[in-house]
Amino acid sequence: MKLEGLRVVDLSLFLPGPFLTQIMADHGAEVIKIEPPGEGEPGRHIGLGEDGNSVFYRNTHRGKKSVCINLKHPAGRELVLDLCDRADVVIEAFRPGVVDRLGVGPGVVRSRNPKVVYCSIAAFGQTGPYRDLPAHDLATEALGGVVSLNLGQDGEPTLPHVPVADISASLFAFGGIMMALYRRQQTQQGDYLDMSMHDAVLACTPNVTGPVFVDKQAPVVKQQRSLGGAAFYNIYRTADGRHIVLGAQEIKFVRNLLTALDRPDFITLCEQGPGAHQQPLIDFLRTTFLTRTRDEWEAWFRGKDIGFAVVKDLREAFDDPQAEARQMRLLDAQGREHIGLAVKFIDEPGRANFSLAGKGEHNDMILRELGYDETAIRALYAAGTLES
Prior knowledge:
The protein is of the alpha/beta class. The chain has 2 domains: about 5-205 and about 325-380, Crotonobetainyl-coa:carnitine coa-transferase, domain 1 (Rossmann fold, 3-Layer(aba) Sandwich); about 235-305, formyl-coa transferase, domain 3 (2-Layer Sandwich), CATH 3.30.1540. About 40% of the residues lie in helices and about 15% in strands. The strands form 4 sheets. The protein has a 6-stranded parallel sheet, sandwiched between helices. The protein is elongated and about 85 Å long. About 30% of the residues are buried.
C-alpha cells in the first residue's frame, strides 16, 4: 500500500485528527494512537456501538495501535518524545499552547527529529485573536459564515448535518502532510503545519463568494445558484412526503425537462441565471412534483438526460447499488458494517484493517520496541505513567 513504512504518532482526539490518520492507516501507515488515561479516546463512547466499540470509534480508529500514556508525568512525556523521534508524522489537536506546556510541542519534537512532519489542527489555528477560544465544528462554521448559508424552510439558520469544519480541516491537513513528505524527499527536512478549522471553512466557499468580494456584502442566500435561487438546483417534495432534487443547471438539462413537462416557456427564466425571477418556475415544479411519489418520479426520469436524483436516507444510501459497486460499505468477518475507503488506487489499493485496539493494548509491544525492559515497563504502570 502507498503509505507502508510510514510511522504516524497521533495525539489527537475526537474527529479531525483521527479522521486524518484513519485515511493514512487504511493505506498502510503504522498509526500509533496516544490515548489519555481514564476514558481514553472520547470517540470510543460516542453513539451506538457493537461488541464494546462505538461505530464512531471503529470508523475512525480501525487498524491503529493504542498506547495509553499520562502526558502529565515526566516519564510519559519522555515516552512520547521517544516515539516522535522515530516518527515520520506527528498529529496533535489540542488547544494552542497545550503541547508546548506538556513538553511535546513542535519546537521540541522537530529539534530532536528534523525530518518529522508535525501537524497541529486547532479550531482557529495557532495565531489570530480567536486563537485561544474553545470551539468545535459548529462554532467554527458559525464564525466562518457557513451556518448563515444553511437556512431551513423557515429562513432561520439550522444545524449543519455534516461536520464541514472537522472533515475539511482533516482533508486539507492530509494534503499538506503529503506535500511536506514529498518535499522531504528532496530536502531531507520535515515541516510544521498550522491547520485551522476556521480557515478550512472559509476555503470551502468559492461558489458563494461572488457578492462578498464584488458587492462587499453577504449573499442573499435564497437567490444564490447553489443555495435555493435556481429551480434546477433545488429540493422538491413528492406526493408520498419524500423528496427529489434537480442537481444540474446546464441549459440542455433545463430544455430536456421543461420540454418533457410541456412548459418550454419557462426556459428563458433559467437562461437569465439564478435569482428571484426563477420563483414562478420553482413554484411550478413544486406543484408538479407533488403529483407523484418519489419512486414514480424516479421511474419517470429514467432514461432522460436530466440532472435528477432521489433524496435517500443514510440507510438507503449505504444500501445503494452505487455504494455497493464502489465498496463504500464494508463487512468484517462478524458481519459488522464499516465505511469504505474513498481514496481508491488501481495499483496498491488501500485496505481496511478491521482490528480495533483496546485502550493501551499496545503499550508493552511499543515500549519494548523503544528498548524498555519488563522491569522498566512494570515500573511505569506502577507510577501511573502507563494505563491499559
